[in-house]
Write a structure and sequence with these properties.
The chain is of the alpha+beta class. The chain is 37% helix and 11% strand. Strand 4 and strand 5 form a beta hairpin. The protein is elongated.
């Protein structure tokens, strides 16, 4: 009797963010960036695509000065294994077809294994900070004013009308204990004022900052979405792409 065996798919299942991080950070499949000197790598982040490893020029001289010896540009690309997983190479090649500004964002966060920050459209309010060189005990700006308050005799009448004792459980005068720590001033007619202090508030982020940060997030998300459409149907050798779960506009769901 012939037996039928079902073939089991043992490929590793990854979502798009994890797959890109594995390809760019762990496998370092984008060899162009890793094979460059510092100056060239900085230029490459602006969308240029130089190939290979420098053998001469200012970049090499600076590298020699940095390490104190001659840098050998031959052999395998420094920091990269001789072979790269074919699935990682396929992902890196697909990233290279994205729009330049989206490619820059996808590569940066793929290499670092992060997701771009985003900011709520209504920023939280925070205390206004003092200038770093300003003297004072507080690190934030404080404001103050004097406000009129009832006299102690008026407060005592209110306690009596409410049926409350003028003494607390420890036998201390309730009004005196409750006012301890406050700064009062009394006028000749008996009226009193208390000094009120507070911290002025301001938005934690400006409108321009919110637009800039959220624009970067939207660009990264659009690039990842385009990448998913490009490679979503590819048959990788050892991996299965499960999708992309990052929200497109997380600030719309922020309370």
């Amino acid at each position: 009797m012939a037996l039928a065996f079902a073939r089991c798919d043992i490929r590793r299942r990854l979502d798009l963010e994890t797959l890109v991080t594995w390809a760019l950070r762990d496998q370092q499949a984008d060899r162009v960036q890793s094979g460059l000197f510092d100056i060239e790598a900085a230029a490459n982040d602006h969308g240029w695509e130089p190939q290979g490893v420098s053998g001469d020029g200012v970049a090499e001289l600076l590298r020699r000065h940095e390490v104190g010896d001659r840098v050998d540009g031959g052999g395998p690309v420094r920091g990269i294994a001789v072979t790269v997983h074919p699935d990682a190479e396929a992902v890196a090649n697909a990233v290279g077809w994205l729009e330049p500004w989206q490619r820059r964002l996808v590569r940066f966060h793929g290499r670092s294994g992060t997701r771009p920050d985003w900011l709520p459209l209504v920023p939280p309010m925070v205390a206004v900070k003092r200038p770093s060189e300003a003297r004072g005990r507080y690190r934030h700006v404080t404001a103050e004013r004097w406000e009129f308050v009832p006299t102690r005799s008026e407060l005592a009448k209110r306690y009596v009308l409410r049926g409350q004792s003028l003494f607390d459980a420890r036998g201390q005068r309730r009004i005196i204990e409750e006012e301890r720590g406050f700064h009062f001033r009394t006028f000749g007619d008996g009226h009193r004022q208390v000094q009120v202090k507070w911290c002025p508030l301001e938005p934690a982020h400006s409108d321009a900052e919110i637009v800039e940060v959220n624009t970067d997030y939207a660009g990264w998300h659009a690039g990842m979405t385009d990448l998913l459409e490009r490679i979503g149907s590819w048959g990788f050798r050892d991996h299965v792409l499960t999708g992309f779960s990052a929200p497109a506009t997380p600030w719309e769901y922020s309370p």
